[in-house]
């Protein structure tokens, strides 16, 4: 039961954010959007370091291994995994005029569908990170507590709230009904608990590779930050606002992890 609660927390954040489409008539102001995107980037960077990479290193060293090796291998594999998905799956970023991925120009793929694919890609590593952290809390000697996994889930949920709004409001602005835009925002986050649950199963079966899985999730999240969030929050004028948001997000996630973990 506790794993279902923890895995559902980030999804709840996305759903509540998507529900803002019923209360906000206009699009999010550009300055606020940059602040929120930067905030999400800061949370994900801090989570990658404090909640995933450091525990992976500590766990390996406690087992008598070379601390940095699984962290390095897993991190690069996570980057590569998201790179492959980003290259293969057709998707369209909200601010991009051109779709990406294989067969992205196929007429049967609507703009809305490709936008949804883009956000789903974004959410995959977040679900993985919460799942692997929770799995680590179940393994003795992993150096991860249940409170630490909860802190990670809360941090991801906090940054998912504005992301949910950033997803649903532009879709509504594209002419989609508010109800459909909300549903699309919710569906974009459903991959998080699913991905987290699958990761828990894998980590539970193969606990010796947990440090690799922790670093893998960190690499996947960092890919999203570098590929998508930072460029979008630094786009155009007022780029310092995105930087402020990233700093606040990093600080909040760091405090959550240290105070609760």
From TrEMBL:
The chain crosses the membrane at residues 6-24, 36-57, 69-92, 182-206, 212-230, 242-260. The keyword Cytoplasm does not apply. Pfam families: Zip. InterPro entries: ZIP. It is found in: Cell membrane. Keywords: Cell membrane, Membrane, Transmembrane, Transmembrane helix, Zinc. The keyword Transmembrane helix applies. It is a multi-pass membrane protein. Its main location: membrane. It comes from the Bacteria. Belongs to the ZIP transporter (TC 2.A.5) family. This is ZIP family metal transporter.
């Amino acid at each position: 039961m506790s794993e279902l609660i923890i895995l559902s927390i980030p999804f709840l954040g996305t759903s509540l954010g998507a529900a803002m489409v019923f209360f906000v008539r206009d699009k999010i102001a550009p300055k606020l959007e940059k602040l929120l995107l930067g905030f999400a980037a800061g949370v994900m960077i801090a989570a990658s370091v404090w909640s995933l990479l450091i525990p992976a290193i500590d766990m390996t060293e406690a087992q008598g291994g070379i601390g940095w090796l699984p962290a390095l291998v897993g991190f690069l594999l996570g980057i590569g995994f998201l790179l492959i998905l980003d290259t293969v799956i057709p998707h369209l970023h909200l601010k991009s005029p051109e779709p990406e991925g294989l067969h992205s120009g196929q007429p049967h793929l609507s703009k809305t569908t490709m936008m949804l694919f883009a956000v789903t890609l974004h959410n995959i590593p977040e679900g993985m990170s919460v799942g692997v952290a929770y799995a680590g809390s179940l393994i003795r000697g992993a150096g991860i507590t249940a409170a630490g996994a909860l802190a990670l889930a809360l941090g991801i949920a906090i940054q998912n709230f504005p992301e949910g709004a950033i997803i649903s409001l532009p879709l509504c602005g594209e002419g989609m009904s508010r109800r459909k835009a909300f549903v699309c925002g919710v569906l974009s986050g459903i991959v998080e608990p699913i991905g987290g649950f699958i990761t828990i199963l894998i980590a539970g079966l193969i606990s010796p590779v947990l440090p690799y899985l922790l670093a893998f999730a960190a690499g996947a999240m960092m890919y999203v930050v570098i590929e998508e969030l930072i460029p979008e929050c630094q786009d155009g004028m007022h780029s310092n606002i995105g930087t402020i948001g990233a700093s606040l997000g990093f600080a909040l996630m760091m405090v959550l992890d240290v105070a609760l973990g």
